[in-house]
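INFO  loader      accepted 1 record
INFO  loader      residues=257
INFO  predictor   begin
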Amino acid sequence: MNDPWDPAQYERFKDERAQPFRALLRMCEPVPGGRFVDLGCGTGETTRELHRALHARETVGVDRSASMLSRSGAFAGEGLRFERADLETYAGGTFDVVFSNAALHWIEDQAGILVRLAGMLERGGQLAVQVPANHDHPAYLAAAEVAREEPFRSALDGWERRSPVLAPERYATLLAGLGLADVSVRLEVFLHLLPDRDAVAEWHRGTLLTDYAQRLGTGFTAFLARYRELLHGRLPDSRPFLLTYKRILMHATRSRG
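INFO  predictor   done
INFO  writer      dumping tokens
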């Protein structure tokens, strides 16, 4: 399948998307001279911020999208480099900080990926993860509803995007069960002022709808038009439009013992 990720589309709202990244970054302690990995690094711009803010010696940014990584060269250097790899199979050794912002929700086995990431931690290493938990928002529900309509249902062979994200308390017990210490998990609502309700479709076109674009090919144009139509009927016509976005942020540390 073609790479559906469009860095220009994604970065139309890069200031808003940076808010949860920085909230997660604030949960981390600096590790001068440490080795970090950023899983789902996108273009790499925020990876550079992570690298500098926590005083890493080496940071590896990892993403499976060649399109997103095509922009990473502008941010590489000074101990920061980028690799294309699948997050579920990436094997780059152990790290002082394993960081992942808005990426792990694409992985079905949430418990399994946490086991894998915890195994990548050095003693005393930090695990920091943020996943969207906004799957009850009208923008998410509308996408699933369109997917159940014809001709999209047949074109998708009955598939629809379902979020595998767990409840915050489930993540807390999973992290504690892995033997990690100082477990902190919180649900936070971020508020984003967008120009109008049309911008809500554009926001999700750069993230949620990439799955549909990849599977539908040229048929995605009609899918997007129908999606916009549903949103117009369900979102207030306010300018600016206040997009509420729930996210789960978690941080834990591997024992030094």
